[in-house]
Design a protein that fits this description.
The complex is a heterodimer of chains A (251) and B (166). Chain A has 251 residues and is an all-alpha fold. Helix content of chain A is 65%, strand content 0%. In chain A, helix 1 packs antiparallel against helix 2, helix 1 packs across helix 8 and helix 2 runs antiparallel to helix 6. The model of chain A has no long low-confidence stretch (mean pLDDT 95). Chain A has one domain: Ferritin, core subunit, four-helix bundle (Ferritin, Up-down Bundle), CATH 1.20.1260.10. With 166 residues, chain B is an alpha/beta fold. Chain B folds into two domains: 85 residues, Fe-S cluster assembly (FSCA) (GMP Synthetase, Chain A, domain 3, 2-Layer Sandwich), CATH 3.30.300; 59 residues, no CATH class. In chain B, 27% of the residues lie in helices and 23% in strands. Chain B contains five helices and eight strands, in the order E-H-H-E-E-H-E-H-E-H-E-E-E. The chains are: A mainly alpha (251), B alpha/beta (166). Chains A and B meet through helix 2 and helix 6 of A and loops of B. Bound molecules: zinc ion (ZN). Zinc ion (ZN) binds next to loops of chain B. Chain A: One of its GO terms (molecular function) is phenylacetyl-CoA 1,2-epoxidase activity. Chain A: It is an enzyme of class 1 (oxidoreductase). Chain A: This is Phenylacetate-CoA oxygenase subunit PaaC. Chain A: Its EC number is 1.14.13.149.
Chain lengths: 251, 166
């Protein structure tokens, strides 16, 4: 296993946190209530903080003279390896919560495994992040129950978001060749082992929220190989504008 | 790995005088973010700090403040950010908890009470203003990621609670 294998593996994990962190930070000042606004902004901060730890490690591993800022802001769309789920837009609050919950459950399970990685940097980042992500999962899960078991309108919107975002859940468990190599070496996580408990956890919460599991068998993937949906270009241009206009800025 | 912070006696008072930029009544020592402080040859002072939360924006400021304060006392400061072992509210000193309460922030409780309170199952967090335990959760996140918002049903004040992190 080479450093480049590790770097690519880190992108597959950290880019999820970066893009979702960027997405939910769009809600800063626009949340439906002050409390949810503050909560989402805090979660964005957690995710971006975790991203920094990963990218600092990438900068260390890289043979090139780069910083965390180069990693975050100066890659092209194809070089980002986040799943399609996290780049989906903030259509309405139900979408925000469903996207968050679908990701948080996975994120928690992944970090639980990464805690036992042979790589000490992964261990440290996972241990730190787990404490934060357990709050995220509780927040998004509580809200999803509230929306599903709320008014007719909130239930209908939550169901719509579930039906639309469900197709992106399977990609969370897609293993690229690089993922396989890194997990075989004991550094990465074989996410295929997490799939059953993931869907069991989601099913049980949706039941409690009186929401239906979509019966679709069609799933979409691509992000982990750098092939993104049309939303990715827009989020990157928002994110990269400052750094490309004023090169050398620090975050 | 040791959980006890290892701080050289001659650096202790200096570091104790550096406040947390977001909660200025709390010293960074009482917050528990200083994990080690060592004096090396040539007056080099090496300090290791760990973040409360990954994205804590205060860490850069804390690092700069430590450097300024140590330089004032004739040291050549070196500050390193470490992630492991991860920070826990157990590292907050009793003095720190008291300072928090006097400032109007309810200090972190033990893990069980914390969970009960944050899930809205039990009313256990005492109001820092009037001591009443008749308080309810308003939001699991407050002004910063490390706090939750509560309301006292007796004196009607809202207040921040410093969440337990173990
Ligand atoms: Zn009160």
């Amino acid at each position: 296993m080479t450093n480049e294998n590790l770097i690519q593996y880190i992108y597959g994990i950290a880019d999820n946190s970066l893009i979702l962190g960027q997405r939910i930070s769009e809600l800063c000042g626009h949340g439906p209530t002050l409390e949810t606004d503050i909560a989402m902004t805090n979660m964005a901060l957690d995710l971006l903080g975790q991203t920094r730890s990963y990218y600092q490690y990438v900068a260390e591993l890289s043979p090139k003279d780069i910083t965390e800022d180069d990693v975050a802001f100066l890659r092209t769309e194809r070089e980002y390896k986040n799943v399609l789920l996290v780049e989906q837009p903030n259509t309405d609050f139900a979408y925000v919560i469903v996207r968050q919950y679908f990701f948080d459950v996975f994120h928690f399970m992944l970090l639980k495994e990464l805690e036992n990685s042979k790589n000490v940097n992964f261990q440290a980042i996972a241990k730190k992040s787990l404490k934060e992500v357990s709050y995220h999962k509780r927040f998004s899960g509580d809200w999803l129950k509230r929306l599903g078991d709320g008014t007719e309108e909130s239930k209908q919107k939550a169901q719509q978001a579930i039906d639309d975002l469900w197709v992106y859940t399977d990609e969370l468990f897609h293993m690229t060749d690089n993922d396989k190599a890194v997990s075989k070496a004991g550094y990465g996580v074989d996410t295929t082992n997490l799939k059953d408990s993931y869907y069991a956890a989601i099913t049980s919460l949706l039941k409690e929220a009186t929401l239906d599991i979509p019966d679709t068998k069609y799933f979409q993937k691509g992000g982990k190989n750098g092939i993104h949906t049309e939303h990715m270009g827009f989020i990157l241009s928002d994110m990269q504008y400052m750094q490309r206009t004023y090169p050398g800025m620090k975050w | 790995m040791t959980q006890e912070a290892d701080i050289a006696t001659e650096l202790y008072t200096i570091l104790k005088s550096v406040p947390d930029p977001e909660i200025p009544v709390l010293s960074i020592i009482d917050l528990g973010v200083v994990r080690s402080a060592t004096v090396l040859p040539n007056q080099v002072a090496k300090v290791e700090i760990t973040p409360t939360y990954s994205g804590c924006p205060a860490m850069d400021v804390i690092g700069d403040d430590i450097k300024t304060e140590l330089a004032k006392h004739g040291y050549k400061p070196e500050v390193k950010l470490i992630l492991s072992p991860a920070w826990t509210t157990d590292w907050m000193t009793d003095e720190g908890k008291k300072a928090l309460k006097d400032y109007g922030i309810a200090p972190p409780m033990d893990a069980t009470s914390d969970k009960d309170a944050l899930l809205g199952n039990k009313r256990v967090i005492p109001c820092p203003q009037c001591e009443s335990k008749n308080t309810r959760l308003v939001s699991q996140f407050a002004s910063t990621a490390c706090k939750a918002m509560f309301k006292c049903e007796d004196c009607e004040e809202t207040f921040d609670y410093f969440k337990c992190l173990i």
